[in-house]
Specification:
The chain contains 6 helices and no strands. It folds into 2 domains: 183 residues; 32 residues. The two termini are 63 Å apart. By secondary structure, it is an all-alpha fold.
Length: 246
């Protein structure tokens, strides 16, 4: 079963349930009583909690910008491939080669569609917990004020982390399918090259004979031979001089 799973994963990767982050973590949420930091370090701890929140927010923006760029790249590649295939179908007879190219286009379309699908899922609107000015309007003593703020910001960071990890998972899946699409594009391009060669040089043996005959018709005069000897001798002398200087 494992080998079949690996084969399936190679051609058609899936987002496994184990990879999906667990968002039911209410037990891990912090309370102000869980914070046992000394009073002298509470302010520094609050700054660190805010920095962690900002780092997660920056990570989300980076992944979303990459996803948007990914969609644009996929659209361009898909347009080029579809345009190329439409031209081939119009100018060529419908034979086994064209059928194979259309089949590759179908596989490529599947991979591209999955890539776009996961890229769009990465850009979907999700629950994101932001820090507002109201979070700082807490009427409490100095230590409890800092502890409540630290707990609130840390809990929001944890919740946002699950959301961002989900975005990253979708982006990872988009990249996996895009990698497979690149392989199909390579096979597609090589197939087109072979198709063009077969069209321009249907009789390969005849073309090879013509090439050999053309090479044999080249004549080299005695002066050209002397010139080649002179250039070779000069190159040897210069090489010896360069080696002595080292």
């Amino acid at each position: 079963m494992k080998i079949f799973k690996e084969i399936r994963e190679f051609f058609w990767p899936l987002l496994e349930n184990d990879d999906i982050p667990n968002q039911n973590d209410k037990d891990t949420m912090l309370d102000k009583d869980d914070i046992t930091v000394a009073s002298s370090h509470l302010k520094e701890t609050l700054e660190y909690a805010i920095n962690c929140y900002e780092a997660e927010s920056e990570r989300r923006k980076t992944v979303e910008s990459k996803s948007a760029l990914f969609i644009g790249t996929i659209s361009v590649v898909t347009s080029i491939i579809i345009g190329t295939t439409s031209v081939l179908v119009k100018i060529s007879d419908f034979n086994i080669t064209i059928t194979f190219l259309v089949f590759l286009l179908f596989i490529l379309t599947l991979y591209m569609t999955r890539s776009v699908w996961f890229s769009i899922k990465a850009l979907e609107r999700k629950n994101y917990h932001s820090i507002s000015i109201d979070d700082f309007f807490i009427n409490d003593t100095s230590d409890d004020y800092f502890k409540k703020l630290i707990a609130e910001i840390t809990n929001k960071t944890k919740k946002n982390s699950h959301t961002i990890n989900s975005i990253v998972d979708n982006m990872t899946m988009a990249q996996k399918y895009f990698k497979r699409a690149i392989i199909v594009v390579s096979i597609y391009a090589f197939s087109i090259l072979l198709h063009c060669i077969s069209k321009t040089c249907a009789n390969f043996e005849g073309c090879l004979k013509k090439t050999i005959e053309t090479i044999n018709t080249i004549t080299i005069s005695g002066l050209n031979i002397l010139l080649l000897y002179f250039i070779s001798f000069t190159a040897i002398i210069l090489s010896i001089i360069a080696m002595k200087k080292k």
